[in-house]
Amino acid sequence: MAETPHYNIVFLDRATIGVPVRQPNFPHSYTEYQETVADEVVERLADADIAIINKVQVRAPSLEKLPKLKLIAVAATGTDCVDKAYCKAHGIAVSNIRNYADNTVPEHTLALIFALRRSLVPYVLDVRRGKWQTINQFCYFDHPIHDIAGSTLGLIGYGALGKSVGARAEALGMKVIATDLYDFPGKVDLDTVLKESDVISLHCPLTEQTRNVIGAAELKKMKNDAVLINTARGGLVDEKALVEALKSGEIAGAGFDVLTVEPPKNGNVLLDADLPNLLITPHVAWASVEAMTGLSNQLIDNVEAWVAGKPRNLVLE
Ligand SMILES: NC(=O)c1ccc[n+]([C@@H]2O[C@H](COP(=O)([O-])OP(=O)(O)OC[C@H]3O[C@@H](n4cnc5c(N)ncnc54)[C@H](O)[C@@H]3O)[C@@H](O)[C@H]2O)c1
Fold first, then answer.
1. Please, which pLDDT band fits residue 274 given cuts at 50, 70 and 90?
2. D-isomer specific 2-hydroxyacid dehydrogenase catalytic domain spans which residues (predicted)?
């Protein structure tokens, strides 16, 4: 009788997923590391048949020293951490996670929009600091509050997440306009988005064409009471120009989940600015418990499917 194959699985950056990861349903040994730095990759994967990674870089110089490796299961959609050309040439399968963020990213985007349009954070901070307790009326109006309903949302990038944000915004009574590279009914150009929107939200990838797609000139074209949301990628907005625009009142606020360098260990102009109308979250738009659980299940589904000889979500077909 043929021996049941036994697989050695090594997860290099387990700390990047904040929910349990189930054990696969086939004979295996499993080692996980919370995090892995570049010069630990080869040593840790030396005996692995299957590597699980999220953001650790696994490039050709490492892969050349890992002849046993057969599958890299990436715990994210983006697989730029893996040298895919090398994997393709050497028969290493690469799988990724798909369509897990359809609720979590749009909901985070809407949370930032609501918070900024209604000046939620300035009012909460006021109350915490004791301001309400010092005034004579039942309320006060130091920070402007604007309704979501009736306002115009401009989307830059009308793919899966842009569309999902747009559908939710329409349900809230917003008028939605969008620009993208491809044609669709009602498409507008970037200039129209900049000039007509009360809220602009970015949902395009970072490419050479989209780097600094919002710079000083674009910020000038926006309405003075408009807010800018970026839950897509750091680098889409010129961060220095944004600080200037917020300080000078060129735009009313910004909500960012992404920065040009993450984590911002060496500081960042947006973090240094300390502005009440600038809300920054640490790249967590994807990270609802529900979305992470879906991602975690899909990750192991991918590994089990590959071992069963029916691979799914392969990046290299
Ligand atoms: N913050 C987070 O946690 C988080 C989580 C998931 C995804 N994201 C980011 O969200 C972004 C959108 O994801 P998606 O799933 O909707 O991707 P998608 O590929 O479905 O949509 C992206 C859209 O952007 C368009 N686009 C490309 N270049 C453009 C340009 N120059 N001008 C206008 N539009 C352009 C594409 O044509 C496409 O329709 C990605 O950058 C992704 O990395 C962030």
1. confident
2. 33-315
